[in-house]
Structure formats: C-alpha cells, structure tokens
Amino acid sequence: MPELPEVETILRCLRERVEGKTIRQVDIRLPRLIKWPAPEQFQTALTGRVISRLERRGKYLLFHLDDTTVLVIHLRMTGRLYYRAAQFPSGSLTRIDFLFAEGDALEYQDTRTLGTLHLLPLADLKTLRGLAGLGPEPLTPEFTQAYLSQGLNGCKAKVKSRLLDQAFIGGLGNIYVDESLARAGIHPERRGDSLRDEEIAKLHEAVNHVISQSIRENGTTFRDYRDGAGNKGGFQNVLCVYGRKGQPCPVCGALICRTEVGGRGTHYCPQCQKEVD
DNA sequence: CGCTCGGCCTGTGCGC
DNA sequence: TGCGCACAGGCCGAGC
Q1: Rounded Cα distance, A173 and A211, in Å
Q2: Partners of residue A184 on adjacent β-strands
Q3: Cβ neighbours of A44 (radius 10 Å)
Q4: Which of A116, A168, A207, A248 has its CA 20 to 30 A from that of A132?
Q5: By the 8 A CB rule, do A74 and A115 touch?
Q6: Is the CB of A115 under 7 A from strand C?
Q7: Torsion of Cα atoms, A124 then A126 then A129 then A133, to 10°
Q8: Do residues A259 and A266 make contact, with C-beta atoms less than 8 angstroms apart?
Q9: pTM
C-alpha cells in the first residue's frame, strides 16, 4: 500500500501520539504476521517496554524501544497503523493490538495480511536484507543526479523496473514511479541505459518534486491508505497519470494509457512519454 | 550476475 | 441480483 510519502505521514502522525508510551499488553490475533521472533517471545519481549523513538527508512517504520531493541513494521500493500484513544474499544479489523499503560493503543490492521513485523536488537537490523540494503532516498544529499545516472548506466532493464528497485532508490513505489516518469516525459518501458543526460536530469528533478509534493499533501489515498489517525491523503487529487486510464493528460490532453510493466499496472501519456528506443 | 516472473493474501468493482 | 474475473499502493526467491 503505502510508499515513502504515506509512511512519512504515518510517522509524523504517530510520533506525537506513541513516543514515550509504555506497552502494557500485546494482543496478537494473526500470529503469522510476526516474522521474528516467535509470537510468544515477541509478546513477552515487548510487554513493559517504552517506545523511545520512531523512525522511517524507505517504506519501513522503526519503533525504537528503551532496551535497544527495535520493532520493525512493513505495511506492504494494505497495512495500516491506527492510534486509538483510551475510550474506544479495539475493532474487529485489528490483527495486532499494542495496548499502552495509559489506556490508549496502537492497532495494526491489514486486509491482505502481507505486512511484516520483526522485533530485533538494534545490532541485528542488518539481518533484514530489505532494510539493510535500501538505496538512498529521494530528497537526501546522497540522491544526486550523478547517482541516478550511474545507476542507469548499463541497465538493460526497463527504467520503471529499475526505479522500483529499493536497493537502488529507497521508498519509491508504483504510483510515484509512474508520476515521476510522466513529469519527466519518459516512457516507462525505455531501457534504463537509453536515457540521455538531459532526461536523467529531468527524472531526478521529477522524483524529488513528486515525493516532496506528496509529503506536503500527506500522501495519496487511492483506495486504502489512511494515516495514523484515519485521515486520507491529498495527492490523489493532483495525479497526472496513475489510475487515470482513458482520462485526458493534464499537460497535452491526450488520453492516458494503461499497460503492464514487470507485472505492475503502469500508466503513461502516449503523447508526452514517447517510446524512442 | 542481472533480470523476469510467480507467489503470497483478501477484498472490491466491473462486465456479463 | 449474482457470478467470475481482473486488479490492487510490495517484496522475495526461484529460475532463466
């Protein structure tokens, strides 16, 4: 479900609500979501811990605890984290319920149940390969035009597939890749190594622009996404191509096309994003 | 080694 | 109305 801007929005929302809270009880209703350690140990180890700090890396959310262990949550497609005030009961959609000593709670919901939860000592975070191998994120000093250029150099894969690789760029997902390529005027099926310098410059600008604008808009609610308090995002109102098959391109008016690239639904403007390979 | 594809899950919305 | 199918924001591992 969520990509970098959505996870960032959840982080900002939850920070003020759960940092400093003591976990009194963990109610596990779908144990298979807990990948490490075994659910019983997960439950025991978390009970009594204080959440000292929240952090986001790519699409991962990290809950640092007062004993230097870390709860790592990945929401995958439909995971949600909801803060629940003390007077409300836990709902039927909750898969894992974190109850605080103060009476309030954090609930993990997940329709498709593809999400993952790990509890690890800080020093063992490197064993989570997806997390440890994350590439630089958009809007960081490491994500330069030169880095993008170097990563596309010799890349025979389609540019869209390359941009979705979290080890190359951390945090981009299907929506923002489609939107970035649209803004840069690059067809998603172009070979990575076919992009000219000026196109790479445009793509670099586009990725940063799209991600920063979406963070400002609190992410994209295409369907399921909500932040930690249940609020929708706003970026869906300014999407140029994603989910807009058959609708006019806001730039040129041509009708948006949908195709499949690397098994992912892909949207582009046939006029602004010409195939030139 | 680089890359593509299928599998993991459940729910929703569409066309017939 | 009911049914079946296509599709869904991500990631990993098998296999080419």
Answers
A1: 11
A2: none
A3: 12
A4: A207
A5: yes
A6: no
A7: 160
A8: yes
A9: 0.97
Name the nucleotide with the smallest C1'–CA separation from A157. Answer: B3
**β-bridge mates for residue A100, sequence order:** A23
Question: Of A193, A196, A202, A128, whose CA–CA distance to A167 is shortest?
Answer: A128
Strand B and A172 CB separated by under 7 Å: no
pLDDT at A38: 97
pLDDT digits (tens, 9 = 90+) for A227-275: 999 999 999 999 999 999 999 999 999 999 999 999 999 999 999 999 8
Q: A9 is written with which tokens?
A: 């929005």
Sheet of A105-110, strands arranged across = A23-28, A94-100, A105-110, A79-84
Q: Three-state secondary structure along A78-142?
A: CEEEEEECCCCCCCCCEEEEEEECCCCEEEEEECCCCCEEEEEEHHHHHHCHHHHCCCCCCCCCC
Token pair recorded at residue A267: 């949207």
Contact A7, A226 (CB under 8 A): no
**Which one-letter amino acid corresponds to residue A155?**
C
Q: What is the pLDDT of residue A223?
A: 87
Q: Rounded distance, CA A262 to CA A59, Å?
A: 20
Asked about A3 being catalytic, the answer comes back as: yes
Give residue-wise pLDDT tens across range A161-212: 999 999 999 999 999 999 999 999 999 999 999 999 999 999 999 999 999 9
Q: Which of A57, A59, A202, A226 is catalytic?
A: A59
> Residue A277 has what pLDDT?
63
